[in-house]
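pipeline: protein-struct stage 2 | run 1193 | CPBP family intramembrane glutamic endopeptidase
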Amino acid sequence: MSTASTARHAGGPGPDTGPDGHDARGGRLDRIVRSPLGWMLTGLVGVGLVSGLTATGPGPVPVLGAVAAVAVYWLVMRRVARRSTPEIARRGAGREVLLGGAIGLGFVLVSALLITAFGGYSFSWAGHGFMAVVWSAVMVQIGTAVTEELLFRGLALQALEQLWGSRAAIVVTGMFFGIAHLGAPGASAWSALAIALEAGVMLGAAFLWRRTIWFVAGLHFAWNTTEQLLGIPVSGHTSEGLFTVDVHGPAVLTGGGFGLEAALVPVVIGVLLAVRMFVLARRGDRLLPRRSARHAQAG
C-alpha cells in the first residue's frame, strides 16, 4: 500500500483534502457555485423553468408564475449568492411600479402617436369584450415583465456587473436581450438591434438608476400591455387587443410585422431615455466601476 493511501485510511489529509481536513473538491465546487457566474446560472435555470411552465397558462397562472419566480430569485440570492435582495424589497415597491409604468406608457403612446402622425398607423375599435381583453393582457404581461426582468436585470446584469462593472454589464445584457428576441415572428437582425438598444440598454439603465426590479418591471409591463391593447404586435406576437391597427408605409417607420419595437422612432426615443437614466445613475453614484467590480469579486 502506498504512503498516500495509508495516510488517507489513517484519516490524514489526502490529495483532495484541504489543510483543515475538509474535502477540497467540495470547497472548490462551493466557490464556483457561489461566484457571480455560478449564482447567475443557477438563478437563470430556476426562474427560467418557472417562466417556461407558467408564461402561457390560462387566467392568473402567469401572475402566480411571477410570484413563484420572485421566490426562486430570493432563494438563489440569499442561499447561493449569500447576498441581500434590496432590489425586490416590498417597501416602496408600489411607488416604483407606478413610476416605471408611467414611463413605459408614455414611451409607447408617444412613439405610436408620432408614427400615426407620419401616416404609418391607423386605429379602429376591435369590438372585443373590454374586460376580457384587458384581463388577459394584464395577466400575461405581468408574468412576462417580472420574469424577464428577474432574468436579465436581476440576475445577468448584477452578476456581470460584479465581474466587469456596470458599463460592460449593460452592453452585454442589452445585446443578449436583443438576441433572445431573434426567435420571435418577423424578427431580423435589425429588430434584434432595435430591441437591444431601446429595450435591453434602456431597461438596464433604468435598473442602474433605480436599483429595483419593481421599477423596470413596471416599465416593461406598461410598455407591453399598451402595445397589446392598441393592437400592435408585441415583439412580433399578435394578441387580441382593444383596437386593430392598419400599417402603412415602410417598415423603418412602422416596424412592419414585428411591430412598433422595430420602428426607428421608438429606437431614438429609447436611446435618449437610456442616456438620461444612465446619467442619473452616475450622478447618484450607483454605477460599479470595473476596478471595484474586480475587488468585490476577489473579496
